[in-house]
UniProtKB/TrEMBL annotation:
This is Uncharacterized protein. Residues 1-22 are annotated as: Disordered. It comes from Antrihabitans stalactiti. Residues 7-18 have a biased composition (Polar residues). It comes from the Bacteria.
Amino acid sequence: MHVAFTPSANAEPVSSATDRQERVLAERDGIVVSVVSYRLPLAADAPPHPSDCDRTGFLRYRPADGPANSRDAEHVVVQEQGLGGGATNSDSVATNTVRSAMRLGHNIEFWALARRSQCLDETTGFDFALRSGNYLDAVDYYFNGKEIDGRKFPGFRQSSNLQVLDWMGLDRVVRDQYELMLAEIPDQAVRQRKFVCTGISLGGLVTGLFADWDFDGNPATQDDAGFNQCAAFAAQDSMVSSDPAAIQNTPFFRDVTNVITGGANDVLKAGFRADVMPRIFGPVPVTGTKAFLILRLAGLAAHLAPDAESQLLQHLPRDLDIDLTLNTLFAPTWAAFATNGADGSGTIRDFRFTNTALLGTLIDNNSTNFSLLQQGVGALAGGPVQDKSFPNPGEATQIPVLGGYLRISAGPQRRVAPTDHHALYTWRNYDDVAGVPYTAPNHEVADIRDVARQLAAGSPYAYWETYFPLRVVVDIGAAYGGARSGDMSNLRYAGMSRTKPNLAVFGGDSSVQNTAGALFPPPMLAQVQTMPGYNHIDTIGAAAVQNNGALDYSGQYLAEFVAGL
C-alpha cells in the first residue's frame, strides 16, 4: 500500500457538528474547567434514545489568563479514555499537564474526551446529593426506592434495553474525536501543528486506530486522515498502534486475516443487534454496572463526609452482584473468598470505616485485590491489619518473569486487611504514610481527596461510565486481528502514528510495561518514561505534588513533550 505523507490539496473537510455550547464548571488554581459539547446526531436508523445522545463533547482545561479560543492555544492535548472511564477520569492529569506547561512558559489546553455512551450515565442521585450534602440520598435513590423530585430510579438498564449502544462502536468514538477537532479548529494545517493526540489504557489503542482512520472514505484525499490531525502522539500506560502484530506488512496475512477476522466481526455485530451478545458488562463483578456505581458512591461519601463513620454498606442491598464484587475486592485469603467471610474473617460489611477509609479499602494498592482499580492513595489506620494472600500476595510479583504477569491480578504491593470488628478504621492520605510498615511514600502518589471529588461527579460526565459499550472492545479486537472490511473499511492506513513524535509513559507499579509493553514496544524513536510508584490509574490520577517534592510525573512529562514540539 502506497501512502503519501503530506495532505492533499483538496478542499478543507467541514465538520458536521453544530450548536456549540460551553459552560464553565470550575476554576481551580488558575485553570478553568468547562464542558464543551456539539450537536452531532446519531444515524437516522438509530433506535429511540435520549436527546443527549445526539450531542458529543469534552471537558476543557485551559489557563485562566490564557487564550479563550482553542485555536489560539499553543497546543491542545486530546485524550481518549480507558475502558469504562468517563471524561472526569482525566481530571488530575489534565490539570497537572496544563499547570506544568504554564510553569514552562507555555499556554496549552487539555481536552478529556467523553465517549458518546456517557449520555446514558446515571447522574440524578449524584447531582441531588451534591446539592443536599447527604451521600445517602444518592445511595437510597439507586438502591432503596427513594424519590428525588417526585421521581424514582427506574432500575438498571439491561443489555436488551440498550440497543442504541450498537451505534456507539469504534467508528463512532473516533469519528466524534475527529468532528470535535475539526469543529474547534477548522484549518487542517493548524490542527496538524497544534493537536497532540493521547490515550490512557484502552484510549491509547483507540488513538492508534484514530491515527490510521480515513474519515471521508476516499483514498485519494488525506486532509481528513487521522494522522494528519495530530502533531504528535502519546500513550499513557498503553500503546498507540492500529496493527501491533504488523499483519498489514504482509499481503498474504493481510488478506487472510481480513477475511477471517472481518467475517467474525460481522457475526459478532449481528449478535449485538439480535440481543445475543451482551452489550455491557452488566452483572459482572468488579467491572459491572453496580460495581462501578458503588465505587462512585464510595467517592461521593468520602467527598461529602470524609471523616464520618460510613453508612454506605448498610444501605446497600445484599445481592449476588454486590456481594461478589465486595468479596472479590476485600477478601484477605482464598478461604475468606470461598466462604464469603464465613471462615471467621468476616466480610467488608463486618468492619467499621470512615467514609475515606472505606474508599481507600476499595481502591488502594495496599488494600484492594484488583490491580486495574488500584491507586496509591495512602494507608489504613485506626486498628490492626493482617496480610492478604488472595488472589496472590504482592510479594509473589518479585518472581523473575512470572512475577511481571502476576501483577495483572492484584498488583505488586503488599496488601493488608482490617482484623478488628470493633475499631473504627481511618485513613492516612498519600502524603502521611511515613512509618507505615507495608508501604512507602514513593509508592503513594494520589491524593484521596482529589479521587473522592472526581468519583463524586454527576453531570455532565461521570468518573466511570454506567453503560460502557462492549462493542468498542470487540471492534478494537477485530481491527488488531486484521479486519479491514465492513465497519473497519475506513481503517485504511497502518503505523502512521510512528511517523510523528511519540511519547510513552508507563506506571512503574503497573503491569502494562512488563507485559503488553514488552510484547509490543513503543516506536524506536519514541520518548519512553517510567513513573516510579505509579499504578495504572495513577498515570492519569496522581496528585499535583509528589512525596519527594516533584510535580506529578505524568503531567510534567507530557508538558515537556508538548513544549518540545
